[in-house]
Write a structure and sequence with these properties.
This protein has 274 residues and is an all-alpha fold. It is built from 9 helices and 4 strands; from the N terminus they run αβαααβαββαααα.
Length: 274
């Protein structure tokens, strides 16, 4: 994934940049009271997106990236690339916006690195497949609970309200998103909320449209008028003459009968032609 690759690349940037961190200090998330840094409230809005990739090189950083890649790849396979990218973007921007707004209440501190985003991905993975086993046979939900609990205790010990707030927003948002995306059906206590189309479940059945009643067309079939008495008599005469021809031949007809047969035949052909 691009996030993991960028984090690995940034370890080299961290190692070779000057000690005063002129690049990193422009990327991490911090309140405006933190010295030698900037803040989103000071107009540096790019920090809402760049703060997770700024990490220093260490074995723990590599392990963090590997775990993030493994869990993220499985979620991406379920969500699809576009939805997973939107999922990560939401987990990156929304918590950063929350702590930025809370600066007006006196919240101070800073955060950087993939640590918080990885916890969000871990919580989402555990909600999606809670019984997936990690080494040595510990289910995913227990791993997520243990790591989240340790992080919480650590930030409480450090009196780091900024990171503690970011942690809880990250975990809660991950649960809400994965539940609302239709991928955490066992987390029944978490409500589902409407999501933007890019995040919503593409297989969710839409309410069927009410079929409009078909307009009935009155097709008036033309009913031919009943034949007149004269026509009935004429038809009877023709039938009698035809029977005579069939039994005795044309030579059996008199001149008057032949003439009558011809006249009746012409009259009927004319009416059919009309």
């Amino acid at each position: 994934m691009a996030v993991a690759a960028t984090s690995i690349f940034y370890m080299f940037v961290w190692a070779f940049e000057p000690r005063d961190r002129p690049i990193t200090s422009k990327l991490w998330l911090a309140s405006k009271d933190v010295p030698f840094s900037g803040s989103v409230l000071e107009g540096e809005i790019w920090r809402l997106v760049t703060w997770p990739v700024a990490m220093g090189p260490s074995i723990w950083t590599v392990l963090l990236v590997v775990i993030f890649f493994m869990l993220g790849s499985q979620l991406e396979a379920v969500m699809g690339r576009i939805r997973f990218t939107a999922f990560l973007g939401t987990l990156t921007i929304v918590p950063a916006l929350v702590v930025t707004v809370l600066e007006f209440t006196g919240l101070e501190g800073g955060a950087n690195g993939l640590r918080f985003l990885e916890i969000g991905v871990l919580v989402a993975f555990a909600a999606h497949i809670p019984r997936a086993l990690f080494w040595p046979g510990i289910p995913a939900w227990a791993i997520a609970a243990i790591i989240f609990g340790i992080e919480t205790l650590q930030f409480i010990d450090l009196r780091d309200d900024y990171s503690l707030t970011l942690l809880f927003v990250e975990g809660g948002l991950a649960l809400l998103l994965i539940r609302s995306m239709g991928l955490a059906e066992e987390v029944t206590w978490m409500p589902k909320v409407p999501l933007p189309r890019i995040l919503a479940d593409p297989y969710r059945q839409r309410a069927p449209r009410r079929a409009r009643p078909a307009r009935r067309r009155n097709h008036l079939s033309s009913v031919p008028p009943p034949p007149s008495v004269a026509d009935q008599v004429a038809q009877a005469e023709i039938d009698a003459l035809l029977d005579k021809v069939a039994e005795q031949g044309m030579d059996s007809l008199t001149r008057a009968e032949r003439k009558a047969l011809e006249e009746h035949s012409k009259r009927l052909r004319k009416r059919r032609g009309d």
